[in-house]
Design goal:
It is globular, with a radius of gyration of 21 Å. Strand 10 and strand 11 form a beta hairpin. The strands form five sheets. It has a four-stranded antiparallel beta sheet with strand order 1-7-4-5, with no helix packed on it. A four-stranded antiparallel beta sheet has the order 13-12-15-16, with no helix packed on it. By secondary structure, the chain is mostly beta strands. The chain starts with a strand and ends with a strand.
Amino acid sequence: IGWYRKHFTLDAADRGKRVVIEFDGVYHNSEVWINGHFVGRRPCGYSSFYYDLTRHVRFGQRENVVAVRVDHTKFADSRWYTGSGIYRHVRLHVTDKLHVGLWGVYVTTPEVKNDSATIRIETVVRNDHGEARTFSLESSVVAPDGKVAAALTLSGALNANAEQALGSQIRIADPQLWSTESPNLYTLRSALKAGDEIVQE
């Protein structure tokens, strides 16, 4: 059995935002508390998971404490060596309550040719505000040289505590195809706006 504790503060300017902790992997039977409040248990040691800490965190000078208990006292439960404890990255996400969902961007390339490529993008936008919000989502495909190869803007509206999956397609002319000799990679950049203000990118 192992215990982890992390002490941290949050900027007072972030008061009213959403705070989420993400674990890439904890082996295993983990339990998590924030400031003495139990937020969840995860038996599996391989998959990633997250908890919303918003209701229990403090902003400004007051300290926050995350505590994680990991219990690997059971019999050997894997044919491979698993180790034990927090063995992958942990991240704290502070976002506006209007935000792109965690793991909420999915990109595929349904058609790729020498002279053109079609990129399908699905983005989950969530509104955790207590009232409806309108938004715009700007998606830009950036080529290996850093230049924007194509861009698209979608607009929408969400009721309070609702989410929506937005699907779109972008076409790129004369794409730089990937190969072992020329490992070209494109990057998708998303910017979520409320009015003229960027709330997440």
